[in-house]
Amino acid sequence: MADSPRRRLADRVSSSPTFIGSGSRFTGDLECNSDLVVGGEVVGDGEVRGALTLSDGGHWEGEIRAGNAVIAGNVEGSVTVAEKLELRATARIKGSLKARTIAVAKGAIIEGDMAVTSGKEVVHFEEKRGSEPKAK
């Protein structure tokens, strides 16, 4: 059951995704035929045919279209996902969200509207991973 329906999207990123690393900035429209991981900044519209991961600290300004998405960073614009959209606790969204299923972690901030195309309820969850306090 390595690919069961309840498995987290972040655990299923392909073995060779495209990266826009922390400290990098991409300006312009972006088309990606596989998975995309963004730790830096994107200004422009994006079409990601695989899974998009917007890491904590990542920022996207523009329209996003993706097959699946996990968002832990900041988005200013619309997000349209064909299947599952997962918003982590650190996600900050200013714009509209539309996906077949949407899961929102406690702590995520959404300033805009949400539409679930499957007609199911938005799933709310509390993150368990990475929530341990850091040692000083």
Tally of extended strands? Answer: 15
Number of self-contained structural domains = 1
Silhouette: globular
Structural class: mainly beta
Order of helices and strands: EEEEEEEEEEEEEEE
Give the biggest beta sheet: 9 strands, parallel
The number of distinct helices, counting runs of at least 4 residues, comes to 0
Instruction: Evaluate the radius of gyration.
Output: 14 Å
Strands, helices and their partners?
Blueprint: E1 18-20, E2 25-27, E3 30-32, E4 36-38, E5 41-43, E6 46-54, E7 59-61, E8 64-71, E9 74-76, E10 79-87, E11 92-94, E12 97-105, E13 109-111, E14 114-116, E15 123-125
Parallel strand pairs: 1-4, 2-5, 3-6, 4-6, 5-7, 6-8, 7-9, 8-10, 9-11, 10-12, 11-13, 12-14, 12-15
Describe what this molecule looks like in 3D.
The protein is mainly beta. It has one domain (14-112). The chain is built from no helices and 15 strands. The chain is globular, with a radius of gyration of 14 Å. It starts with 17 loop residues before the first strand and ends in an 11-residue tail after the last strand. Residues 1-6 and 131-136 have low confidence and may be disordered.
